User: Fold these one by one.
Assistant:
Number 1:
Amino acid sequence: MKEIIKAVEKIAIEISELLKYGDFSYAKSSNSTGDTQLKLDILSDEIIENRLKKLSNIKAIISEEKESILEINSNADYIIAYDPLDGSSLVDVNFAVGSIFGIYKGSLDARSLVGAIYVVYGPRLEMVVCDDSVRLFRLNRDNEFKFIKNLELKDRGKINATGGTQKGWSDSHRAMIKSLFDDGYRLRYSGAMVSDLHQVLLKGGGLFSYPATPDAPNGKLRVAFEVLPFAYIYEKAGGATTDGVNDSLLDIKIEKTHQTTPCYFGSKFEIDRVKNG
Ligand code: AHG
Ligand code: MN
Ligand code: MN
């Protein structure tokens, strides 16, 4: 695990440099989900692949930008599923974007997650590392990630980060979102899940949701490398998650590498509201 964290630190610094000075135009290709790729999506994927390939304990990697699993060392333990650049459609407007890593031991199964890491490329370079606890690190002037604090969610927050095409929301979802606003919650949503979930986590609570809609019947966000790593982090931070049906997003079975799901992450109070109305 330590080796993986060190590799992600190097990856974060490299991608951060790329974001500052790289070409942010589109490539001519699209990925498995059908998203048009930026040159930055492809280069970030290469940076991560090259770093992770050097580790002897990595069995395989799965990337948003790769069609299928890439085997590395068949006898090794860890499978890393990652989103190289999350929120990449926002790099043109200079919003904070991120990278997400799910660390699975043995098999690609939600209950095999042993850790998750995400990086936020904002005005500062920050990294949240979760194994048993959830810890915030920040890059200092000497290019070292320094521990800042442990992160914990309160039982209830004030932020409502709400995604998905609103005209396609179900009546029950619409009513739940409205009930939170009626209770005084404030809208916060940038369109990069790393930044939006980072805000909810650092402000101590609230709700992030991306429901099923007719244009995205299984939601938009990808299970293996977006949803499960954050579900792991939120639950370890004392929060809760659901897909609207199951008690936890960690109950989802991964059947396809690019599978999507509706998803809700938050503190306990808001997730209870999602489940019970
Ligand atoms: P990516 O840039 O990796 O494709 O992910 C974008 C995702 C996620 O970050 C965000 O929460 C969601 O797409 C935003 O979608 P909408 O624009 O539909 O709100
Ligand atoms: Mn993403
Ligand atoms: Mn991405």
Number 2:
Amino acid sequence: MTDSQTLVDAARQIAQQSYSPYSKFAVGAAILWDDATLSVGVNVENASYPLSVCAERSAVSAGIADGKRRIVKVAVWADVDDVIAPCGACRQVLYEFCGGEAASVEVILAGRQQVRSTSLDVLLPDAFGPESLAQPQ
Ligand code: THU
């Protein structure tokens, strides 16, 4: 089982590839999938600012393109003293791939001085997801 430190290290390392010339706020994310493989992502900004994509969603896209469907653990790293937590859009996108078990997805928030562990159900309570659509009328 990939430990949390390995995941944080992967997020920190990949953050160096962040394309963030506008915010100058580099973020890296690493996802552990249920087949024990990792995907990583960075924030990718755009001159048309709203088109920017967060590191977490980049990491999800990389894993999905690689055939993964179920997230076990996520690490998010930003070059800050404390930590940052995923934005609302990313929480929703992560939820899509938790198999309806948000409590089972650990989310590790890491910065220069701090590491904090939480879970997707805490970050996104009462989520709307695939199982909501599957409810009979
Ligand atoms: N950002 C992320 O990549 N992940 C987060 O969890 C929060 C924010 C990015 C988006 C943008 O490129 C920059 O950080 C500043 O908001």
